[in-house]
Amino acid sequence: MAARAARLSRFNLVSLTLGLAFLYLPIVIMVIYSFNDSRLVTVWGGWSLRWYRELLQDEAMLAAAWMSLKVALASATAAAVFGTLAAVALSRAGHFRGWTLFSGMLYAPLVMPEVITGLSLLLLFVALNAERGFWTVTIAHTTLTMCFVAVVVQSRLHALDRSVEEAAMDLGCGPVEAFLQATVPLIWPAIAAGWMLAFALSLDDLVIASFTTGPGSATLPIRIYSEIRLGVKPQINAVCTLIIAVVALAIVLASLASKLSRAKADSAAPM
Amino acid sequence: MSGARRIFTRPARLAVIAPYLWLVLFFLVPFGFVVKISLSQSAIAQPPYVPVFDLAAGWDALAAAFAALSLDNFRLLISDNLYVLSYLRSLTVAAVSTAILLLIGYPIAYAMARLPRGWQPFAMMLVIVPFWTSFLIRIYAWINILQHDGLLNQTLLALHLVSAPLVWLSTDTAMYIGIVYSYLPFMVLPLYATLAKLPQALNEAAADLGCSPRRAFWLVTFPLSLPGIGAGVLLCFIPIVGEFVIPDLLAGSASLMIGQTLWLEFFTNRDWPVASAIAVVLLGVLLLPLLIYERLQRRQLEGER
């Protein structure tokens, strides 16, 4: 380990520092400026909560935030269920017929340009004559985010020792029971992490939501996007800072949950 | 053990049914509709295209609808320079951005893999956190910095590096900054995953055999990290080709990427058939890298088993 640390050359250190600075500096600057009292975004006028107060009175923004939250809760939950089922199938079912198509469909949305996914879903909804709004956005987000859940849960299933499951079956459990009693408690944090990733992705999505939503049910990113296009407003800094705070909280909770359960898993089944 | 494994596959195969049906209905079938509408004519109606398949009208109506399909939209894509240039620009922007991402991302991933073991999860988390915060927010943060009286110009003026504010916003430079910034985690994470797995002993062996560290890197580490490079390049290249939001907010309006052209045809011109035709061609262009990516994924999975 000491040998490893010694290998971190000055070049490594500089590139890591610069890389992290590049990633974080713009965000930090924006958070600071969300507390700026000045009406001009770029002139510092002292600390204030003024833009947060104004945000609370912006009803269109609040309605959009509520819509986004509902969609994110519903689609993340559905994505956690479908994604976990898909991960179990991929890692436990062996090579079934249609495996290639299934894994292809599961990985393709991860890289597919969002305009194509959004356009195709909209054309489906129009052809089905479905009224666009909460449900269509939720379905679209579930389709996209279940793939991310599947990847997260599958990597945990891969790392898992199968002997716990097999021991449960030797002790008389059926395969389904063994899975529910022995495996699910161990992959639970991965499912939770997948859920939170799906939640964050849904909260974040602009392109697919733009295609699949109807008039009067804009999500938060759609709202923010149209505000940005109209010109920079200090309020947007405040919205963005709040979103960052929510996401940061979710990440801390997720990593705590995963650490807890890993400790639990290690003590239950030394790997 | 293998007996237990076999018993287990059956319920696991049942588990596949729900996600399989979902993906067929909401991922595969929609592409069928894109293809179908790309062959239709645009119309001033709701929905804005003809023919519309009316299943209730019976077989004759359906056959007539099929007969009305045409390749006109695709002919338009080839004949109009605007579309050809959009595709070319998208591919160029994606190629340049991916190259920059690789140049910036590799040293970061390499340094992360060289960190003491205990620090690595923390460094990984630091790279992932911005990926979890909205990309729209991160683009907006850059608008704050790059605008005319933004922080970048203020800093440059204060340091007397420039005498007048430079134009950053609505330029290709701004667009590349935004793209590289947004996609950096997609490049760093697969590279790090590959580099962290390489046994340290290989480099030590190379050193014992008289390799300088630099030579050891090019002869041992770099070739072994090629799968990670492949995954990172494709994870960035494919979505950047279809990118819409970043060029829309940061690049000038002079030349459009194909994602913006599709968006304009769809929302502004309301020409759904042409938008669909753009999507079909784009999908065709991207299918090759997608297939390569799928192959890489499978090889990686098989390597782990």
From TrEMBL, chain A:
Native source species: Rhodopseudomonas palustris (strain HaA2)
Domain of life: Bacteria
Presence of keyword Thylakoid: no
Xref: InterPro entries: Bact_Polyamine_Transport, MetI-like, MetI-like_sf
Membrane topology term: Multi-pass membrane protein
Protein name: Binding-protein-dependent transport systems inner membrane component
Domain ABC transmembrane type-1: 65-257
GO biological process, one term: transmembrane transport
Membrane spanning stretches: 12-35, 71-93, 105-128, 134-153, 186-203, 236-257
UniProt cross-references to PROSITE patterns, sorted A to Z: ABC_TM1
Keyword set includes Iron: no
Alphabetically ordered keywords of this record: Cell membrane, Membrane, Transmembrane, Transmembrane helix, Transport
SUPFAM superfamilies: MetI-like
Family membership: Belongs to the binding-protein-dependent transport system permease family. CysTW subfamily.
Main location (coarse class): membrane
Pfam families hit by this protein: BPD_transp_1
Localisation: Cell membrane
GO cellular component terms, semicolon-separated: plasma membrane
TrEMBL record, chain B:
Transmembrane regions: 12-35, 55-78, 90-110, 122-143, 150-168, 174-195, 216-241, 272-293
PROSITE patterns given in the database record: ABC_TM1 (PS50928)
Location in the cell: Cell membrane
Domain ABC transmembrane type-1: 87-293
Keyword terms, alphabetized: Cell membrane, Membrane, Transmembrane, Transmembrane helix, Transport
Pfam families named in the record: BPD_transp_1
Stated name of the protein: Binding-protein-dependent transport systems inner membrane component
GO cellular component, one term: plasma membrane
